[in-house]
Amino acid sequence: MNLPPVSPSPGQGVMDEALAIAEPMVLWLLRSGVGYAEFVQALKPVFLAQARLELQRSGQRDSDSAISLLSGLHRKDVRAFREAAHETLARVKEDGSTWGKPSAANQVVTRWLSSQGWGDCIPFSGDAPSFEALARAVSKDFHPRAVLQEMQRLGVAREVDGQVQLVREAFVPDAKHKESRELLAGSVSDHLAAGVHNLSGATGQRFLEQSVFADGLSPESVHQLNVMANSLWAYVLQAVMAKAVPLCDRDANHPAPQRFRLGLFTFSAPEFKPESTGDKKS
Questions:
Q1: Whole-structure pTM value
Q2: Do residues 128 and 93 both lie within one domain?
Q3: Could you report the per-residue pLDDT of 222-243, keeping only the tens digit for each?
Q4: What does the alpha-carbon distance between residue 72 and residue 280 come to, in Å, rounded to a whole number?
Q5: What are the CA-CA distances from residue 70 to residues 50, 73, 75, 76, 151 (Å)?
Q6: Range(s) of the domain holding residue 109
Q7: Are residues 96 and 110 in the same domain?
Q8: What confidence tens digit (pLDDT) does each residue in 153-195 have?
Q9: Structurally, how many domains does the chain consist of?
């Protein structure tokens, strides 16, 4: 007797892609001491909150039954996590907004790197080019000395005989610093949000979400491409900051402010070669 084919679940079409996205995050969790049970428990309010938002966007009532059906959560979890879901969503949005905006120290570094002709060593005090002038151009809410101390704590600057030096080798994210984790979270979540927006058929703006892929490369060739990518990023940084700084100054009191992020990343790894499926000789 021939059985009818089993129809895949509606979500099965994206499961492989979702697991590929989740794989590095799971590795990060494991290396940080977070296990499966702890993460799954933390995900329940997130699923609940997003299910409520999706029902509201489609004009449906966000009842316990509707949320349970859409999210796959048991009704008892929906009842238990309703308030937690609201708090989680509010906290994630607040944190995400904070992570999307670099600290004063990061903004100083960005402006310094994008300022042509400044070099990696400038005097602390005096007119531009000086660290005081740079820090006050970013924010008058923080004393330049406090900003420099924060940059020294992060390891991206040092002061010697009244001169402030950039420490470029320290720009690689340091896992010991909370700021590095927040910058990663802000960048990756915005990148994923752009892709999900484009794939979900949402109306309105389509975001730039592109990448270049090459394989069959030697380690030496990958090094050359990394060097080129860093040079391109330096150019992009200067160009974007030259446009963004005056726009930020102009829009400082806009009644409906928006945030913008442009990112660039590189990654390389050995190519995956599946094992042969042929019969092995004994």
A1: 0.75
A2: no
A3: 999 999 998 998 889 888 988 9
A4: 43
A5: 10, 8, 11, 15, 46
A6: 104-171
A7: no
A8: 888 899 999 899 988 765 665 666 677 788 888 889 899 989 9
A9: 3
